[in-house]
Amino acid sequence: MGKKIQTVMFLMGALLISGCSNDTQSNDQNNQQSNEGNHHMMDDSTMEHGHMSHDNVVSLKDSTGVNELNIPPLLTSDATDRTEYTIKAQTGKVDILDGMTTETLGYNGDLLGPVLQFKKGETIKINTINELDQETTFHWHGLEVPGEADGGPHTTLSPGEKEQIEFKVTQEAATLWFHPHPEGKTSEQVYKGLAGLIYIEDSNSAKLEIPKEYGKNDIPLVFQDRIFDEQGQLDYKAVMNEDGTIGDTLLVNGTVNPVLPVEKEQVRLRLLNGSNARNFTFKLNTGESFVQIATDGGFLNKPVKLNEVTLTPSERAEIIIDFSQLNSTDDLSLINEDGSILLPFDVSHQEVDGTERSEQLNDFAVTDEEKNMPVTKNIELFGMMDHVTINGKKFDPERIDFTQEQGVTEVWEIYNKKDMMGGMIHPFHIHGTQFKIVSRDGVEPKENERGWKDSIAVHPGEKVKIAIQFKHKGVYMFHCHILEHEDNGMMGQIEVK
Ligand code: C2O
Ligand code: CU
Ligand code: CU
């Protein structure tokens, strides 16, 4: 199919979606500035030079709150004296929508995966098994592991193949995740359901006074937007957008129209933007504040008070909402920037004994040395649709773009070069390590970004400096985490020696 025709068909699809969600409440409050990074919703006037506008993304349908949120199981170890997990990528069938069965992919189940728990200092074995009818890989996003255990596109498992990997957990407590990474096929496999969370705990997280009861006041939340066809299927090829596939239907932990029952207490939400391309700005519908306690790779030094938090694809944030301190808990929900209801809360009327909350959480710092280091690597993100590049090049599995020495800190500058449409946010991610943001356009990052990161939103025209060190050797990917951009070659490789 020619590019033009594809574009036109895509446009028609996008307009159709906008048409259906127009009657939802959320669409009334039109979102101008929100999701400046995504360029999906457009009308004829925004088509220019065959390119699409960077503004306006179809709103999500409000969650009606009729389904209790699914809480993924915690995976149990195969052994009692050590941590050995078995993870199978498999096909599944789930009744997500009423009266319809959706064909999905999942890890050890029909859709998404269980939560893996690692302890810092432990050696972990994972038996990975591919029961799909296509190649896949098992990538541990945010985990500091040797290149060969990282699950990048070089380490594919064919259908039926198994592999045991082993690594030591050397990093601090954090919420990470795992997903497939086969070259050119990542978007579709994630879209259909392959993703799961990893919790790392350490002696610090063990002693902190923060909510820790899994599924009760410590809640995993994987946010993903999808498009279901009339048969209730996730027909990726039909809805795929080269510039990032955006859906009108939200799944949280695989649940459509979710509601989260909570007690009147502090509740910790571990937010993951697991979407292919959509950005989320999470806030309470009352406008009241909450605190953020963790970034992608660990705790912030202190809880940071916020009214909203934005996550681009693959970013995580842990927040605590104190339901005992809110003005009213009736009709309370987590909403997106444009007002669409993401997750209604069903708050019990009974007060629970207020728990304390630690005010000192970590000792993260960007050192003066790191602040003054010269830039030694430049990354230029550019383009849209399938014309996306890094430093003018598309991914080539045979080409190593950079090398860096193990254990040596360098400063990289990531520049998002605008295009003639103004550009879009690219969520930039690096494998195998956690890094520090030194500055954004020369300015210290906001308080809630002063923590370990493995993915960062780089805005059009922006230059972000990061201080980065790799603890292990190997070949690692760096790429845009809009999954279609990644699959379209907006990815490079660094070899750590
Ligand atoms: Cu979330 Cu290359 O990964
Ligand atoms: Cu990754
Ligand atoms: Cu991108």
Characterise the protein shown here:
By secondary structure, the protein is mainly beta. Helix content is 10%, strand content 37%. The protein has seven helices and 31 strands. The strands form six sheets. A seven-stranded mixed β-sheet has the order 12-11-10-14-19-16-17, with no helix packed on it. A hairpin with a 7-residue loop joins strand 2 and strand 3. The protein is globular and about 60 Å long. The termini are far apart. The N terminus is likely disordered. The structure holds CU-O-CU linkage and copper (II) ion (2 copies). One copper (II) ion (CU) binds next to strand 6.
Helices and strands: which structural class? mainly beta
- What low-confidence regions span 5 or more consecutive residues with pLDDT below 50? 1-37, 39-54
Strand residue content = 35-45%
Spatially, the strands of the biggest sheet line up as 12-11-10-14-19-16-17
Tally of separate helices = 7
Tell me, rounded to a whole number, the average pLDDT.
91
Gap between N and C termini, in Å? 43 Å
Number of strands: 31
Q: Rough shape?
A: globular
Fraction of residues in H or I helices: under 10%
State the major sheet: 7 strands, mixed
Which small compounds were modeled alongside the protein?
A: CU-O-CU linkage, copper (II) ion
Report the C-alpha radius of gyration, rounded: 21 Å
